[in-house]
Amino acid sequence: MASSAARALREAVHANLGRVRDRLAAACAKAGRDPASISLVLVTKYGGPSLVEALVAEGALDLGEARSERIVRLDATVAGPRPRWHMVGHLQRNKANKVAPILSVLHSLDSLELAKKLDERRQGAPLPVYVEVNTGGEEQKSGVAPGELEAFVRSLAPLANLRVQGLMTMPPDTDDPAGARPYFAKLRELLPRLAALGAPRGLSMGMSHDLEVAVEEGATTVRVGRALLDGIEDEVLREDRERA
Ligand SMILES: *Cc1c(COP(=O)(O)O)cnc(C)c1O
């Protein structure tokens, strides 16, 4: 990427990240919550190495991707401090081997087969995972059905190399952010079903357009991608994405 384009991208990311943090702070103030109780995962799937490096330069090291191959490639490409990689999309079982050692957090645990594979491959510190719940009951979405959550959670208990942090959901798409509220509320109401694992309290929910609603409903982690892109030219982004 030309240095002027890279500079413009860094400036846009700086401004956009500031706006996202301001939105979170305002949502916390409104909900009477401590901003320190919410972590921000920055999803880099629309860009590539330059977007990652711009975020790392901001000290934003918790980065999310929806495809494991991209985590492997980006982790090998980017210079500077190591990002903490969050896998937010569906992880295919046959891709678990390669990514298990470099993942910091998996937000989308949705099957026992995947859990077993990750448990086998994980070395060192246990892998923090969120169980994805299909709160909207949508056929095309992955995630455990709410009615199966309890049995699923019990089946994870013997897997010593995984540590369940809480629950994650991707609500059905709506234009109106408030449309996500019932699904976020439903996820929160499912938390007691994690009792078999010592009742972890994490809720990974909320994206660019509905993070305020998620904060009001108790999110502890929001995953934001699109809101980082304002003012970055499509062409610049496309070129960067092709490098990942
Ligand atoms: C893309 C993605 C996000 C970020 O969504 P934005 O609308 O870009 O903020 C969050 N979670 C998952 C699972 C995603 O795939």
Condensed summary:
With 244 residues, the protein is α/β, with parallel strands linked by helices. The chain contains 9 helices and 8 strands.
Structural commentary:
- The model has no long low-confidence stretch (mean pLDDT 96).
- The longest helix has 29 residues.
- The chain is 39% helix and 16% strand.
- It is α/β, with parallel strands linked by helices.
- Strand 2, helix 3 and strand 3 form a beta-alpha-beta unit.
- It has an eight-stranded parallel β-sheet with strand order 7-6-5-4-3-2-1-8.
- Helix 1 crosses helix 2.
- 40% of the residues are buried.
- The chain contains nine helices and eight strands.
- The chain binds pyridoxal-5'-phosphate (PLP).
Which features characterize this protein?
binds pyridoxal-5'-phosphate; single chain; 16% strand; globular; 244 residues; alpha/beta; 9 helices; eight-stranded parallel beta sheet
